[in-house]
Write a structure and sequence with these properties.
single chain; about 375 residues; mainly beta; Jelly Rolls; six-stranded antiparallel beta sheet; 26 strands; about 5% helix; elongated; binds fe (ii) ion
């Protein structure tokens, strides 16, 4: 029995089932999880004779999508030019490959969460300076003035722009020091800006997608002190310690890192596989009927997906199935851990792809489960 919206729901059993979801599936069956609220709400498990992804063709716009962000054209003329990829009215995903900015930027439309896929450097912002490197998340509240000073290596950041405030999820019974200790968070340090004290500086402010340039005859970052709990902060995926069960494949909500309005950001990180013989080691088949699912693959070997490498992104819209690729289920039996680093964004409302994303789409991805 579970409580959902304070209504008791008693699980019913029909036909061949397993007593414990994701463990000891009936011989010859594939498990599908049919669930509300991103596998957090009411749920039924189907034990099916075929993977629901074993389609022969799809007619119409709804299909799993994949994009190779490595193929996005560089924009050498622009020091800071986010390339929009997927968006709805709560969240927008962009790709950013900045060069040293000789101006500042301020987003008046939303909070900016950057995942540093490649490169690194120094962020200068209203609160001071903060160095960043591969695997960092940078959380920049709406209205912060900032610029990137990247190092000389190739740069590639996934920008998750949130219309609402970005927070972290309740840890509940996991305790205050899971999935990372608050002490691993770093915040900017105030520093005297000697550079350009007497030149003109521009601040590019984005509001409703348009840029307004405001000019100052002094350095725009001139705070000599600040106090409070609203600031830029940084956490590296190496400091996030995922939870897992050695007996049961946990749902993606166990890997939530940030919450936004009507979306969640999860981090899938290196971890051992479930060790019990009958326990599933790859995700169940599902269509996540309440969320669009976006996965950005950053590092390691993506055990449940063939043909996916670092810098690629998949989008599984709500209502059509996905799940492990055919070779992943037997392959997972040969391995005892995954070294993947991937960022997932699940959105309550449907996403829309931009022409820039469509230009780097792999058109055959829907057939990759054959
Ligand atoms: Fe999924």
């Amino acid at each position: 029995m579970r409580l959902a919206n304070e209504t008791p729901i008693f699980p019913l059993r029909k036909g061949r089932v397993t007593r414990q979801a994701h463990v000891d599936l009936p011989e010859g069956t594939f498990e599908e999880e049919f669930a509300r609220q991103g596998f957090f709400g009411r749920t039924t498990h189907f034990y099916r004779l075929h993977p629901p992804t074993a389609w022969t063709r799809i007619e119409g716009p709804l299909r799993p999508r994949s994009y190779d962000l490595n193929r996005l054209p560089a924009k050498p003329e622009a020091a800071f030019a986010p390339v929009g990829l997927l968006h709805n009215h709560d969240v927008a995903l962009h790709w950013v490959a900045p060069r040293t900015m000789d101006f500042f930027y301020r987003n008046a439309d939303g909070d900016d969460v950057y995942f540093i896929h490649a490169g690194g450097g120094r962020l200068e912002c209203s609160f001071g300076v903060l160095d960043y490197a591969r695997g960092d998340y940078l959380v920049i509240p709406r209205g912060t003035t900032y610029r990137f000073l990247p190092n000389t290596s190739p740069q590639g950041y996934l920008l998750i722009e949130s219309a609402g405030e970005v927070t972290i999820p309740d840890r509940n019974q996991l305790g205050a020091h899971a999935l990372f200790d608050p002490a691993v968070i770093d915040t900017p340090e105030l520093e005297a800006y000697s550079e350009g004290a007497d030149r003109e500086w521009a601040v590019h402010i984005q509001r409703e997608g348009q840029i307004t340039r405001v000019f100052y005859p002094f350095h725009p970052l001139d705070a000599v002190g600040w106090k409070g709990d609203l600031t830029v902060w940084r956490v590296n995926v190496k400091d996030i310690r995922p939870v897992m069960s050695h007996r049961y494949h946990l749902p993606p909500s166990a890997h939530s890192t940030f919450l936004g309005r009507n979306f969640v950001i999860c981090s899938f990180l290196p971890r051992p596989f479930e060790e019990e013989a009958g326990a599933m080691r790859v995700p169940f088949f599902h269509s996540n009927i309440d969320y669009d699912e976006v996965l950005f693959y950053s590092d390691g070997h993506f055990f449940s997906r063939d043909g996916i490498g670092p810098g690629m992104m998949t989008w599984h819209p709500q209502g059509i199935h996905h799940g492990p690729h055919p070779k992943a289920i037997p392959a997972s039996r040969q391995k005892d851990r995954t070294d993947e680093v991937a960022v997932m964004v699940d959105t309550l409302h449907p996403l829309h792809a931009t022409p820039a994303a469509e230009a780097v789409e792999n058109p055959d991805y829907w057939a990759s489960w054959k």
